[in-house]
Structures are given as C-alpha cells and as structure tokens.
Amino acid sequence: MSESPDAAASQPVVLADADDIQEGGRKEVVVENRKIAIFNVDGQCYAVNAICPHRGGPLIRGTLDGYRLRCPIHGWAFDIRTGDSNGRPHDLEIFPLRCENGRLVAEV
Amino acid sequence: MTPEEIEPIIESEYAYLRTEYDNWSPTTGEEHDLELVAHALRVLIHKKVVETSTSEFIALGAQQNEDGGWGQTGAANESKIWVAAFCGLMLIRGNQVLEYERISGSVQLAIRYFLDTQQPDGRWCDPSWADLDATSHPVSFFNVVLVLGKEFGTTMRKKVLESWKKGMQFILDSQADDGGWYDQEFHPTGVEITAHLIQDSLVADVMIENVMRVSRPCRKGAQLLLSLQSESGSWDNDNVDHTMDCTRSLMLVSRMLGIERECDPAIQAGMDWIMQHKNEQGWPDFPGMDTNLERTCDGLDTMLKYLAYSEEDCMKIMRYWGYLA
Ligand code: FES
Predict the structure, then answer these.
(1) pLDDT category of residue A3 using cuts at 50, 70 and 90
(2) Which uninterrupted H or E stretch holds B13?
(3) Number of domains observed in the structure of chain A
C-alpha cells in the first residue's frame, strides 16, 4: 500500500535545540532540503520559510520589528506568527513550533 | 579597483552568465522570471552585444501581453507595472541598435499601457512594490522614450511628456527634507529607493528641458547616501543589491552634478567591497551566500558602468543609463 501524500508531506522534524536560539536571536536550518528561519521574539520561537515568497530574498537577513519581519531585498514585511504579508500578493509560509524535551519540533 | 583589474573579471563573469543561458534567456521558454530576463538583457546592452542577441530581444517582445504590459513570467497574463517598465526599457534600448519595426511596435504598446494605468495623482501602483518604486520605473521608461523615441510621433510624445511630468512631480513631492525618499512599509531606511530616485530625477531634469530643478535636492540625496555608507564600503548591513544600487547611482549623480571629489572615495570603497564579496562565479545577496543570477547581472552592470565612470568623457556614463543615443 502506498503512503498517503499527507503523511509524506508533514512529518514532525526537530529543527534545533531550544537553547540554540536565545531571546532576540535567529538561526537558519536546512531540513528536508528546505531552508527554515527561526526567530526568538520575547522568549518564544517562530519558524518560517527562509525564502521570501516575493523573489527569493534571504529572510534570515531580514529586519525584525516586533513580530514584523522585513525582507532585506525589496521590503515585503511579514508577521512571523501568522505569515500575513499585509496585502502583498503572497503570504509567508510558517511552521508552528512546539518544544519537546528542549527541542524545537515542527511539521515540515 | 582599477579599470584594468576589472576588465578580465567582466569577461569571466560574462562567460559565466552565458553558461547559465538556459536559466535566463526568453528564447528558452516562457517560465523565466521576466525581471531576471530584463536584468540579463541590460547586461547584453551594456556589453554591446545586442547585434548578436536579436533573438533574445524578439523573444521578450513576443512575451508581451495584449494590454501592452508584461507579467512576472513570460507565460503570465496579468501585467505588472514594475516588470513591464523594465521590459519596455530594455526593448527600446535594444532597438536603438536593432531598429526592428516589430520591437518598435511592442514599445509603442507598452507606452499605451503606462499611459492607461497611471493614477490621477501621477503615481503608478503595483501591490508588490511601494508606490514610489512602481512610479520610478515607468518614469525611467518615459525618460528614455522622450530622449530616444523620436519615431513615436508628436501626439504620443506629448502625452508621454505630460504623463512623465505628473509622475516626476509625484516623486519630487515625496522627497523628504534630508534629500531621501522613504516608505514606512517597504523602505524605512530609504537607502535603495533614494539611490534609484536621485538618478531618475536628475537625469530627467537635465535631459528634458530642466523643468524640475532638482539639482539641490538630489545633491542632498547623494550626501544622505554618503552618510549611510558603512566603513567597510557597503550599504544596508552588507546588502549586495543595495550596495550595487548606491554605488551605481553615485557614479551617475556625481558626474552629472560635478561632485566627483565628494563622491569618488565612496564609489571606490563601494566597488572594492563589491569585488571583495564576489563568489567564485557571480554574486550572492549577502556575503557568504550562494550566487544569485540576478545579483550577478547587477554585478556585471556595476562593473560596466564603472568603466564608463572612469572615462574622461562624462557623457559616456549617461549612455549606460540609456539617456543618450
Ligand atoms: S525578495 Fe523579498 S521582498 Fe522581494
């Protein structure tokens, strides 16, 4: 019997140790050939696709203002909690995180 | 960096761009991002190889939408202001060499598209860009149409001039007191947009009747850019794209305003930084990252403009923006 596409598409994956990313810090990880950017805002970590949905800008180098992450290339800004792009043509993909035994886990 | 040191790097980077031909040429399919295509065609123009690149320009013309614009890719039917202006600009400039009626027809259609899509207050809008970005590109396109597009007839040129003036006025009215331009959503630091707009404003003003009198505010804008350069020579936290934008803009603006002495150290530092942070082939978005083909086109464009900037003849650099035949 073949595996269902859903099961193949969203596996829980450990992205990083929670201790790796201190408050105000950020880290880019590569999981399943995908670049994911993790930001720690006020002690809470958020994971997003590290590639800007506009034209591929590197969001790990974006500027954070509260929860608003601005792409360094042309300035689209996203809410890292929801992916909302404030009216731009594409939102940012997000990966909700949970902490399991000190590790940050997401469905990727 | 001297012109002699840069020339062989231009050749090797250009050879690299050719090896990536299938990833950018509109002759190889309609799936390419047309912003990348336009960046690559600009390299062909500045490298003076248009005559042997006819098929690339014709293919871009063939990907034009019925409304006269271009979409994000060659296959996309929904035209986008920013992309359309970049494509139109490359076609009118390429056609200075090619003189193809078909391409001239495409440019004419593009002119109509921009006349039709301008807002009453002079701006153009594109949800992917700040209004100042979206306005600056059609204004640049119209600059070039007014200077080079003698074949488009008096009535159309009159309409273009009126539209251009309204667009320019929108841009100039948005300039801040410090000489910069800002957009709270897209460009809070103002670096990239100021680099674009000082050159657009200045060139337009000087080349077309000197009606806008922008020398003083543009000089302030250039000084603002100088003040924002980091000690290492980069702008915007080592942003390769923005550093190339600022360096290129200062080359043109300093020449046109006769403030080379003030700007040259920043231009040299910018060039040194850009060359130091090149990958083995091409440029990344930030130092240490993988090569990005579009940034590589920007790098080639920057080097080619630097050669023109280094020439005695100050008008030579104007040709690299398409403002002189
Ligand atoms: S690539 Fe991110 S805003 Fe354009």
Answers:
(1) very low
(2) helix B3-19
(3) 1
Q: What residue type is B305 in one-letter code? A: K
What chain B residue is nearest to A86 in terms of C-alpha separation? B185
Contact B33 A55 (CB under 8 A): yes
DSSP state letter for B160? H
Do A88 and B241 make contact, defined as CB atoms within 8 angstroms? no
- Which residue segment(s) compose the domain that A71 sits in? 2-107
pLDDT of residue B207: 63
Which residue do the tokens 């050159």 mark?
B199
The most distant pair of C-alpha atoms in chain B lies apart, rounded to whole Å, by: 52
Q: Tell me what pLDDT residue A14 has.
A: 95
Contact residues for A5 (Cβ-Cβ < 8 A; gap 6+): none
Give exposure, B32-54, as e/b (b: 16+ Cβ within 10 Å): bbbbbbbbbbbbbbbbeebeebe
d(CA B147, CA A95): 51
Looking up residue A17, the CATH number of its domain turns out to be: 2.102.10.10
How far apart are alpha carbons B290 and B285 in whole angstroms?
8
pLDDT more than 90, % of chain B: 79
Closest CA to B107 of B55, B160, B158, B169: B160
Q: Which residues are bridge partners to A6 per DSSP?
A: none
- Residue-wise pLDDT for A7-41, tens only, equals 456 789 999 999 999 999 999 999 988 999 999 99
Measured distance CA(B266)–CA(B276) in Å, rounded: 15
Q: What is the reported pTM?
A: 0.93
B185 part of contact set with chain A, CB < 8 Å: yes
Question: From the candidates A64, A74, A84, A86, which should be mutated to test the interface with B, based on the most B CB atoms within 10 A?
Answer: A74
pLDDT under 50: residue ranges of chain B: none
